[in-house]
TrEMBL record:
CDD domains: PDC_hydrolase
Enzyme superclass (EC): hydrolase
Naturally occurring in which organism (per UniProt): Ramlibacter tataouinensis
GO biological processes: 3,4-dihydroxybenzoate catabolic process
InterPro entries in alphabetical order: Amidohydro-rel (IPR006680), Aro_Compnd_Degr_Hydrolases (IPR052358), GLI/LigI (IPR047874), Metal_Hydrolase (IPR032466)
Name assigned to this protein: 2-pyrone-4,6-dicarboxylate lactonase
Amino acid sequence: MSKPTSGGFEKTPGWLDWYAGPSKPQFQLPPGSVDAHCHVFGPGAQFPYAPERKYTPCDASWEQLFALRNHLGFDKNVIVQATCHGADNRALVDALQHANGRARGVATVKRSVSDQDLQAMHAAGVRGVRFNFVKRLVDFTPKDELLEIAGRIAPLGWHVVIYFEAVDLPELWDFFTSLPTTVVVDHMGRPDVKKPVDGPEFELFLKFMREHENVWSKVSCPERLSVSGPPALDGERKAYRDVVPFARKVVETFPDRVLWGTDWPHPNLKDHMPDDGLLVDFIPHIATTPELQRKLLVDNPTRLYWPELLNGNLK
Ligand SMILES: O=C(O)c1cc(C(=O)O)oc(=O)c1
């Protein structure tokens, strides 16, 4: 049955709802694993979607997100502000405040944000801001405004999350490399997986990480990047194989600067909605040893989002 969006909103035509009844993963997540990229949507009646949004989703509440966390076997979440909420972070902050310390957040802010707002978000668990360059999702924000924001959040110990398409990296390079904080790339900078993994486009992304030790990457979203499929549905255990060489390359080259997330509730998928249990079962194909898995799922996200939990045991 189709899921609702509340508050009098109407879902974007063709919207795919998140998957109900995901399977239990066969891959056992290491203790302390973090789903480091997921979202909440609304609910619209409580937290209206932003007037400037490019899509209207079905609702996806923190209760539903935390139920998925428990079902899949994650310990914690990093909730990333979804573009359908613009720079209104209330749904995100509400989710963080209901998480009992088990969620941290990445917000979207404008130049007009006050220091008091930033402090309040920090107290709720926000640890970063997201700059989005994907044209179908957001209107353009001038770089001087983004740099000003980066300069203001840096002293809080926050980082910048960037979302862009691979073809735009050359043009954005100078801006990205001028950012003063840790920089986390969403979904590997969206490589075109039809192109060779050792071709010039992906090589530029690897060079970006190699030459800048402050740059991290989420090796997430095979369901978005895959061209050949097959989809992670109906028990399919060989899903998204065309993405594996790209994600593996990043995990193995930069094991201490990679993160993984479900991307639940998977905004804007057009073709299918994955079974999140099977998505978790994709992880051992891209992080092939227990050590790489522990770094990807536990050590790295803990270092970035819960540094206060470290007691000298983690590198
Ligand atoms: O590719 C996307 O459509 C997408 C959208 C959003 C968002 O709307 O925030 O977040 C993502 O991580 C991915």
